[in-house]
Amino acid sequence: MDARITEQTFARRLAQDLKTHVKSLVVVLAPLILLPLVITMPSEPIFCVYVIFIVLCYWIFEVCSVAITALLPLGLFPLFGVAPAAVLFSVFLSNTSFIILGGFFTAVAIEKCGLHKRIALKVLTMFPGSTNWLLLGFMMTTAFLSMWISNTASTALMVPIVQAVLEELQSTTERSAGFTDNDVDLTMLPIEDTVHDVTTDGVALKSKKSIPEELDVGNNSNDNEQLRHLQSEIGDIQADDELADSPKSDVHDLEEEEDAVKVPITGIDKAFLLCICQSASIGGTGTLIGSPTNLILAGILGTMYGPDTGLDFGSFFLFAFPCMCLLLLISWLWLQLFFLGAGPRDLLKLITCRNSAEERKKQAGVKSLLRREYDQLGRMNFYEKAVLGHLITMAALWLTRDPKFVPGWASLLPYPAYVKDGTVAVLICFSYFVFPSRRPQLAVCKRKTSLNPALLDWITVQQNLAWDMLLLMGGGFVLAKGVELSGLSAIMADTFQGLKVLPTVAIISIVLLVVVSVTEFTSNTSTATIMVPMLGKMAEGIGLNPLMLMVPATLSCSYCFMLPIATPPNAIIFSLGKISMSDMIKAGFFMDVFGILAVLLSTFTTGTLIFSFDVYPDWAHSVDPELGVNATCVCC
């Protein structure tokens, strides 16, 4: 008996030690696993595979920050003779890196002046107060914000607003009288306290009411450990805080009181909360700066194929925005069907605006709530107008630099080829630091004058900018360059030539299914960094336009709706304790399927028009001169 207890104790302690030191073991073991292959078959492609394997293992097990791991190729590729350091360092900071900076600076400026809160409330006041229209309003608002700022930041902003609206809907249902001014107010859930430290791919959440303090959501590439820790501690967070502050003798009474007043979670609650995280992920695919994976695509394309691939902010927007709108509409209809039980009659009733007296009372209460909160913001000040002007100017210059179907403003310059989207981003970034945040006034007749600060200052940028994302994306560009220079890309292209017997639709469907499945469990940025260059070489091997696989796969990297650990917006919503794992998985599974179908439809419609997917481009490295894209294979 004692021996058995000793064995069990030893096994338990051994398991605990392995769990505690697993990262240290991975650091040591990952380089040793493929070391015999490197010794017995020394060649540049093998060295490249060895480095990629080490980086991938360190990313999966998160032995350190993902951004720091992304720097490994900069040191290992030159040591193994894969690529010269000078070439790798020049790739690390490219045109795409400065587009990233432009998006980051704009996001910080928007959040600093509170423009995102004004936009959210203004859009919501434009929708009717019915449940269905409000659901669409929340989704459109969140998606629009996610096109320009972090998905995590837009989710953290919208959570307090949607909670207040849900409380208003609940209280209006229970009241027999009309709406009064003593009802729930958004100040009960302060937005400014929720969005504490926002970066473009992450935000540190410090809300005391809606998000647990333990959750420090950065980019979803290096916060999976915290998200997994969050899963084990999800519960009624507000109740835990009350119990911690109360005497032990009152614990039983508090539990009985909590059970007595606990409000059941309805389908409306689930639909409104899930619509925020789903629309945040969908909205991030709408622009080139909306999601880090989109920028990884642009950078890897430039690294592998040069600047003439035809993908820039404007062309990506024309392709991705219709797909985003389609999937947003599908998500709206699906959430109503799944959680609200809406059918064809309900949708017809929604379109014709036929509402009962009770429904009109709810609408009036919600509209009054949103209008009151928007009025409390006051008139739009000079600071907000200036930041909005910079945002519109940057987007307009990106869209009109070279729109393809008509000459852009760059054609008016002496050297139009010298101008890229990064040029616009750098100029806008500089303007943020010199443009005044208050309306300039002459102080000749004033005794006291005060400094007029700029829209941004360096201290704010240092604190809120996602520097880790710059390192991560730069590391991805270096990996892609190493794959090309080592000759591994040519080997991969030859290997995948056997897939050319499959129909094009089947090939793309398989790729999207694999990418969506992988990104549910791993970081979407890591998935894009590894998969996108591989898919480019796979397309060369089977004679497809590389964009035909790389662009759809990049969009699908953001379609991870099933699990809380898949993306920070999912984790934020799940941490509220109102969404069960089964509800998130069921609703998210079908959204993953709808996302794949939406991308397939866009690939063979708008993709063919904008990127000429059905033509093998001159800028792609040809594998076989007789190999070309068979236009009929699209219909196979």
Provide the fold topology:
Layout: H1 2-20, H2 22-33, H3 35-40, H4 44-61, H5 66-69, H6 72-79, H7 85-92, H8 95-113, H9 115-125, H10 131-146, H11 151-174, H12 191-194, E1 195-198, E2 203-205, E3 216-217, H13 224-233, H14 237-245, H15 251-261, H16 267-283, H17 292-305, H18 313-340, H19 344-352, H20 357-376, H21 382-400, H22 421-432, H23 458-464, H24 467-485, H25 488-495, H26 504-519, H27 524-542, H28 546-556, H29 568-575, H30 581-603, H31 606-611
Antiparallel strand pairs: 1-2, 2-3
Helix pairs in contact: 2-4, 4-6, 6-24, 7-24, 8-17, 8-21, 8-22, 9-10, 9-11, 9-20, 10-11, 10-16, 10-18, 11-16, 11-20, 11-29, 16-18, 16-29, 17-24, 17-27, 18-21, 18-30, 21-22, 24-27, 25-27, 26-27, 26-28, 27-28, 28-30
Q: How would you describe what is shown here?
A:
The chain is mostly helical. The chain contains 31 helices and three strands. The chain has helices spanning 2-20, 22-33, 35-40, 44-61, 66-69, 72-79, 85-92, 95-113, 115-125, 131-146, 151-174, 191-194, 224-233, 237-245, 251-261, 267-283, 292-305, 313-340, 344-352, 357-376, 382-400, 421-432, 458-464, 467-485, 488-495, 504-519, 524-542, 546-556, 568-575, 581-603, 606-611; strands spanning 195-198, 203-205, 216-217. The protein has a three-stranded antiparallel sheet. A hairpin with a 4-residue loop joins strand 1 (195-198) and strand 2. Helix 8 packs antiparallel against helix 17 (292-305). The longest helix is centred in the middle third of the chain and has 28 residues, at 313-340. It is globular, with a radius of gyration of 26 Å.
